[in-house]
């Protein structure tokens, strides 16, 4: 059992270790023993917070998805234009490629949201691992559904704000949000599968073009 007062940090360490382990070994290759090794703790500490591998996978997936919303919310300001808000959103859910392998994965907000980070390569690997597993796992499907429904409402509100302020022209904010998020998920899969665009540009420009068409000229 962890020392009194250390519970939040130990739990966060276990979640981070789980994601790092999954990125390197895959979900099937991840074990509670390996997670304990990555977290520099005993297996007993891992099972103190998560009774089995399945519950650990679910909580790690929740933290992985929540990371994006927390980063976006921390950067969006009420004074921003709708286009700027969408730019912040895209920067996190479909980030430009960067060589950031030296940075440490951290999805805990204990030390501040600004310290949270998932390296580009880990994002791609975890995205593929989780969504492939979710195809046949109803519990993971539920996690995805709840997370993405929240994202859809957030993006739709930005479009509605853009309409009300005269910055955008969107006939159906909900459908526009659905289209953007579906595009991001599809483009993310293409990135992981190394399917380049015909002009060899970063495929995120497709989302950027989609948003520009909604800007009221």
Tell me what the structure shows.
It is globular and about 55 Å long. It has helices spanning 7-29, 32-39, 43-49, 53-75, 82-93, 120-134, 138-164, 173-192, 204-212. The protein is mostly helical. It is 66% helix and 0% strand. The longest helix is centred in the C-terminal third of the chain and has 27 residues, at 138-164. Helix 4 (53-75) runs antiparallel to helix 5 (82-93), helix 6 crosses helix 8 (173-192) and helix 7 (138-164) packs across helix 8. The chain is built from nine helices and no strands. It starts with 6 loop residues before the first helix and ends in a 5-residue tail after the last helix.
Shape: globular
What portion of residues belong to β-strands? under 5%
> Which class of secondary structure composition applies to the elements?
mainly alpha
Distance between the termini: 61 Å
Give the H and E element order.
HHHHHHHHH
Largest sheet: none
Helix fraction, binned, reads: 55-70%
- How many DSSP-defined strands? 0
Instruction: Return the average pLDDT rounded to an integer.
Output: 92
What does the radius of gyration come to?
Answer: 19 Å
- Unreliable stretches: none
Structure annotation, total helices:
9
């Amino acid at each position: 059992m962890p020392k009194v007062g250390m519970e939040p940090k130990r739990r966060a360490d276990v979640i981070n270790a789980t994601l790092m382990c999954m990125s390197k070994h895959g979900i099937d290759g991840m074990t509670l023993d390996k997670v304990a090794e990555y977290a520099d703790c005993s297996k007993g500490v891992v099972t103190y917070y998560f009774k089995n591998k399945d519950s650990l996978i679910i909580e790690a997936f929740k933290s992985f998805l929540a990371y994006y919303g927390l980063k976006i919310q921390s950067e969006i300001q009420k004074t921003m234009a709708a286009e700027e808000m969408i730019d912040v959103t895209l920067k996190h859910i479909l980030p430009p490629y960067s060589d950031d392998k030296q940075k440490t994965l951290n999805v805990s907000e204990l030390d501040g949201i600004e310290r949270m980070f998932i390296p580009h390569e880990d994002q791609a690997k975890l995205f593929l691992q989780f969504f492939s597993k979710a195809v046949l796992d109803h519990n993971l499907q539920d996690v995805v559904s709840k997370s993405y429904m929240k994202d859809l409402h957030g993006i739709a509100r930005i479009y509605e704000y853009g309409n009300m302020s005269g910055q955008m022209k969107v006939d159906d904010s909900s459908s526009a949000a659905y289209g953007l998020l579906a595009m991001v998920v599809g483009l993310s899969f293409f990135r992981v599968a190394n399917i380049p665009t015909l002009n060899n540009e970063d495929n995120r420009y497709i989302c950027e073009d989609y948003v520009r068409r909604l800007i009221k000229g």
